[in-house]
Structures are given as structure tokens and as C-alpha cells.
Amino acid sequence: MSRVAVFGAGSWGTAFSVVLADAGHDVTVWGRREEVCTTIREKHENTEYLPGVRLPDTVTATPDPARALDGAEWMVLAVPSQSLRENLAQWSALVPDDTVLVSLMKGVELGSLKRMSEVIAEVGGVDAERISVVSGPNLAAPIAGREPAASVVACADEEVALRLQDLVHTRAFRPYTSTDVVGCEIGGAYKNVVGLCVGMAVGLGFGDNTTASLITRGLAETARMAMALSADPLTLMGLAGLGDLVATCSSPLSRNRTFGEKLGRGMTTEEVVASTRQVAEGAKSCASIRDLARQIGVDAPVAEAVTEVVQGRMQAQDMVEAFIERATKHERD
């Protein structure tokens, strides 16, 4: 049994707490709001972000980061990607020296264009061997409902990846190990942008041929960026690439897809944000992914167009037409 601190009381952080508890560990969730933490402690349910799911008795919650980290062997980070730097700066001094940090976040930081593991290393002063990531087709509600699912746990240190694999392996959750942190993170971040794009096509009324085309070309774009950053292209064919992409683009439970659908129906980004309390990471990270593609010289038409729509400079219909009108080329170009 291990002591695990999960920082982030949203739907994914809460669902991952269920996985950890099912694997036999004591879990303390840190949440920003006292009322959410109180409900988790007293009712064993996160009624705001994951209603209807009873949390195991070994899951508790607190708004006190020091208390959450007291004795923790693992620190799981499940906060919005664009707030990681600010939050971690407040917590890093509290993290025990031998604690392994696990990122559940899928994004690229605006401005610095760093992946989440790079932000953790920079702000927390943590070596790469103590930073791991979890990525895959892991929609929160089905995971919390213990539907069978698989994922990838990655760390530069294979031994740490094996330890994390053992930490989260349950009867319903099957983890595979990897040392390709870059590939897993790029796959996880980019699929949010592609999910927005596919959602827009669905919102416009287009069917399976259109969405399958966008998914496939989005995967090719993701792979180009990953390989330019020295990732293993086969990672993008696995759970952290294709698997996560299919789940995000196909499921109505995906916040990025549903956000995109609303844009496709003519809502503005501001209107969509006002209509939901949950964060669609792709809407926040699309600009940073576009900028990273430009910085490393990767052709990224999906990221470019999605950013234009999200920022209100293009309509979804114009985005689809722009894809069709692009110059023809060999499929691998």
C-alpha cells in the first residue's frame, strides 16, 4: 500500500483516485474549494465533477496542500495545464525529496511552449527520473465506473515506469509502460486540438467520412510534431496516440469534442465557455501547439485552423473548406 496525493479535484483527478484506491492505496485529493473537499470526505462523492460515483473509503480530500503531501510517495498532478506553473510554484517546497511526480495533464504551456513534464522539472527542480506521465483513452466517467480501459505510463527511468505500472494496475485499468515521455505528451496534447476540429465538423452536420479524414490527418500532423521532437513514431500508433485520439474524437463525453460541436453550430468561444464549468484543454492549448509547430518548422494545418476558429478569426465552415482547398500532395508529405 502506498500513500498518494492527487492534486486536482476535477473529473479526471477524481476518477484516477478511484483507480488508485482500487489498487489498494490511501489517496488524499487536494481541491481548491473547501466545499468540494468536504463533500468528498463526508459523502464519498464528488457531486460537482463526477456525480453518481461513490468513491472508495480510502479516498479523502483537503484544501491544504501540506496535509495532502504529508508522507506521500507519489504526487499526481491533475490541474489545468495552463495553471500548472503557478500552482506548482506554491507546492514545490512541500514535496518530499523522494516523491515521484505523475502528470495527468495534456497540454503545452502558453508562452514557454513547454510540455507539462518540462514545466514540472523547471518549477519543481525535479530530475526527469522522478517525473512520469499517464496518457491514453481515459475518459473520466467510464474510468470511475470501472469500465475496462488501458493506458500508458511513461518515464525516462524505466524502473519508475514499472513502479507506476504496478501502482495503478487494477481489474479494470491496464497500464503499459514506455520511456517515450515526449511522444506520450505530444499525443495527449495534440488530440485535444484534433478533437475540437472533429467536433466542429460534427456541429456542422458532416458525417463519418469527414470525421475519419480529420482524425487521420490529425494523427499525421501529431506524428510530424512528435518525430521533430525526437519521439518514437510508434508511440503515436499506440494508446497515447491513436487510442486517445479515437476516444476524444468519437465520444460525446469528450469535452473537447463537445466544445468543438458548439463552435460548429455557430457559438463563439466565449459563449461556449460561459455554458460549461469544465475546461476543454484544446481550447486553451491550441495556440501554444500551433506556436510550437511554427517554432520547430512543422506543417500544422489543423492546429493553425482550430486556433483561428477558437480565437474568432475564422468560422468553422471556412475551416473545413480551407482544408479541402489546400494544395494536393503525397499522403506522407
Automatic annotation (TrEMBL):
One of its GO terms (molecular function) is NAD binding. It catalyses: sn-glycerol 3-phosphate + NADP(+) = dihydroxyacetone phosphate + NADPH + H(+); sn-glycerol 3-phosphate + NAD(+) = dihydroxyacetone phosphate + NADH + H(+). Its EC number is 1.1.1.94. Substrate binds at residues 106, 255-256. Residues 4-160 form the Glycerol-3-phosphate dehydrogenase NAD-dependent N-terminal domain. Its main location: cytoplasm. Pfam families: NAD_Gly3P_dh_C, NAD_Gly3P_dh_N. Gene3D superfamilies: N-(1-d-carboxylethyl)-l-norvaline Dehydrogenase, domain 2, NAD(P)-binding Rossmann-like Domain. SUPFAM superfamilies: 6-phosphogluconate dehydrogenase C-terminal domain-like, NAD(P)-binding Rossmann-fold domains. Sn-glycerol 3-phosphate binds at residues 106, 136, 191, 244, 254-256. GO terms for biological process: carbohydrate metabolic process; glycerol-3-phosphate biosynthetic process; glycerol-3-phosphate catabolic process; glycerophospholipid metabolic process; phospholipid biosynthetic process. NADPH binds at residues 11-12, 32-33, 49, 106, 140, 255, 279, 281. The active site is at residue 191. Belongs to the NAD-dependent glycerol-3-phosphate dehydrogenase family. This is Glycerol-3-phosphate dehydrogenase [NAD(P)+]. It comes from Marmoricola endophyticus. The gene is gpsA.
